[in-house]
Amino acid sequence: MTIEIRVPTLGESVTEATVATWFKKPGDAVAVDEMLCELETDKVTVEVPSPAAGVMAEIVAPEGATVGVDALLATLTEGEGAKPAPAAAAPAPAATPAEPASTVDVMVPTLGESVTEATVATWFKQVGDTVAQDEMLCELETDKVSVEVPAPAAGTLTEILAPDGATVQAGGKLAVIASGAGATAPASAPAPAAAPAPTTTGKDVENAPSANKLMAEKGLTPDQVTGTGKDGRIMKEDVLNAAAKPAPAPAAAPAATPRAPVPADDASREERVKMTRLRQTIARRLKESQNTAAMLTTYNEVDMGAVMDIRKEYKELFQKKHGVKLGFMSFFTKACVHALKEVPDVNAEIDGTDVVYKNYVHMGVAVGTPTGLVVPVVRNADQMSFAEIEKKIAELGQKAVAGKLSMAEMQGGSFTISNGGVYGSLMSSPILNPPQSGILGMHKIQDRPMAINGEVVIRPMMYLALSYDHRVVDGKGAVTFLVRVKEALEDPRRLLMDL
């Protein structure tokens, strides 16, 4: 029987999504509720579980495709193919018991340039669990990114050598999988009694991996989250909803309120949580930046009216032709590239007793994520069009929020833009991202009365802040840079004429 896999409801006012990742390919065996693919919308990431056990037959919407609600994603051949994979080999049952089970080591993957160790953040499988090939086993945290570890083969997880919280070296051994005969039926006979459990209670279904990760980050347990997936499976959105709810007042609170309350001990009302590797690295690098660079900040303000008018006039044509929205970031990137050509010191860095001038602009774009600030890099931004910049920033932003940025995508930046305005910041002093010598801080656009040609006019204004390393950049250069950015944004025609 063929089953169609279709795009689920994406949420209020959301009509389409992009296929981000397929976790299965045609011919792969899948179990009921096993995650097949991940869709990305403007607001959330949506995981698509398998409605039945069987074999993937065809993928209709490949990665990168844009799909509408209820669009056909793939087809599944229903049956027992998800478990006894060699169903077609029924004529030779005698060969099955004779087939030896082999072991496969699960190793720490390459972590990236200059990264030698990681922390085991979360195991999504337990010893005795049956796993499919390429199914996610655990997640590792490095100083910069999260790394997912897939199963190298189908089988049964027989041993976990590095538990949650353990520090592991690149190339180290994480676990052992028994493959072969043990892959189709739990060959480790000690646990047959546990098999019926999932069918007796719908709450024993496997939660979405991204939901497990988010529960760990938010300090929630599955009992505190109501799953809306099939058979009560907990999805990422369920965790976000649970985290947004106010904590319920303790049931015993009314009865436990004496006439003369005794002040609670401060320690009993505190919570101690170990910092993630990413947060430790952010803290260390920011402090290093303050201790190393002679950091100074200069400020200006820009009238955003011209940019807003252009976006309003051309946004529909731009999106129709290029398939991406025309945002503010492409204007700021172009303006910074223009200013960096005139003031190359801001795009340079100190290396020992040398100053290294960059004849290119690799633009870092600071992105806030649930686990901390990351700075993916738009490489060769000086050679890109508005549309290319918008597409790349959107792609990197989605990867950052999903925790799927690679090491290469966060290295080599020569200058950074940080937009605190998305959080409502009116003015701030950004901290340098070493070894860079400059970072531009964008802020909230706010209508303010301005004196123009002797008259008071209400204009959409934004404060700009340039933090710079005074060891490389003089005050004159910093002010000139910021003025050029202001001029380019207030009259974008200057960018076309290189003025």
From TrEMBL:
<dbReference type="GO" id="GO:0004149">
    <property type="term" value="F:dihydrolipoyllysine-residue succinyltransferase activity"/>
</dbReference>
<dbReference type="InterPro" id="IPR023213">
    <property type="entry name" value="CAT-like_dom_sf"/>
</dbReference>
<feature type="compositionally biased region" description="Low complexity">
    <location>
        <begin position="184"/>
        <end position="202"/>
    </location>
</feature>
<dbReference type="Pfam" id="PF00198">
    <property type="entry name" value="2-oxoacid_dh"/>
</dbReference>
<keyword id="KW-0450">Lipoyl</keyword>
<keyword id="KW-0816">Tricarboxylic acid cycle</keyword>
<keyword id="KW-0012">Acyltransferase</keyword>
<feature type="region of interest" description="Disordered">
    <location>
        <begin position="245"/>
        <end position="270"/>
    </location>
</feature>
<dbReference type="Pfam" id="PF02817">
    <property type="entry name" value="E3_binding"/>
</dbReference>
<feature type="compositionally biased region" description="Low complexity">
    <location>
        <begin position="245"/>
        <end position="264"/>
    </location>
</feature>
<dbReference type="InterPro" id="IPR006255">
    <property type="entry name" value="SucB"/>
</dbReference>
<dbReference type="InterPro" id="IPR050537">
    <property type="entry name" value="2-oxoacid_dehydrogenase"/>
</dbReference>
<keyword id="KW-0808">Transferase</keyword>
<dbReference type="InterPro" id="IPR011053">
    <property type="entry name" value="Single_hybrid_motif"/>
</dbReference>
<dbReference type="Pfam" id="PF00364">
    <property type="entry name" value="Biotin_lipoyl"/>
</dbReference>
<comment type="similarity">
    <text>Belongs to the 2-oxoacid dehydrogenase family.</text>
</comment>
<dbReference type="InterPro" id="IPR036625">
    <property type="entry name" value="E3-bd_dom_sf"/>
</dbReference>
<feature type="domain" description="Lipoyl-binding">
    <location>
        <begin position="103"/>
        <end position="178"/>
    </location>
</feature>
<comment type="function">
    <text>E2 component of the 2-oxoglutarate dehydrogenase (OGDH) complex which catalyzes the second step in the conversion of 2-oxoglutarate to succinyl-CoA and CO(2).</text>
</comment>
<dbReference type="GO" id="GO:0045252">
    <property type="term" value="C:oxoglutarate dehydrogenase complex"/>
</dbReference>
<feature type="region of interest" description="Disordered">
    <location>
        <begin position="184"/>
        <end position="207"/>
    </location>
</feature>
<protein>
    <recommendedName>
        <fullName>Dihydrolipoyllysine-residue succinyltransferase component of 2-oxoglutarate dehydrogenase complex</fullName>
        <ecNumber>2.3.1.61</ecNumber>
    </recommendedName>
</protein>
<dbReference type="GO" id="GO:0033512">
    <property type="term" value="P:L-lysine catabolic process to acetyl-CoA via saccharopine"/>
</dbReference>
<dbReference type="InterPro" id="IPR000089">
    <property type="entry name" value="Biotin_lipoyl"/>
</dbReference>
<dbReference type="InterPro" id="IPR001078">
    <property type="entry name" value="2-oxoacid_DH_actylTfrase"/>
</dbReference>
<dbReference type="GO" id="GO:0006099">
    <property type="term" value="P:tricarboxylic acid cycle"/>
</dbReference>
<feature type="domain" description="Lipoyl-binding">
    <location>
        <begin position="2"/>
        <end position="77"/>
    </location>
</feature>
<comment type="pathway">
    <text>Amino-acid degradation; L-lysine degradation via saccharopine pathway; glutaryl-CoA from L-lysine: step 6/6.</text>
</comment>
<feature type="domain" description="Peripheral subunit-binding (PSBD)">
    <location>
        <begin position="206"/>
        <end position="243"/>
    </location>
</feature>
<comment type="subunit">
    <text>Forms a 24-polypeptide structural core with octahedral symmetry. Part of the 2-oxoglutarate dehydrogenase (OGDH) complex composed of E1 (2-oxoglutarate dehydrogenase), E2 (dihydrolipoamide succinyltransferase) and E3 (dihydrolipoamide dehydrogenase); the complex contains multiple copies of the three enzymatic components (E1, E2 and E3).</text>
</comment>
<dbReference type="GO" id="GO:0005829">
    <property type="term" value="C:cytosol"/>
</dbReference>
<dbReference type="InterPro" id="IPR004167">
    <property type="entry name" value="PSBD"/>
</dbReference>
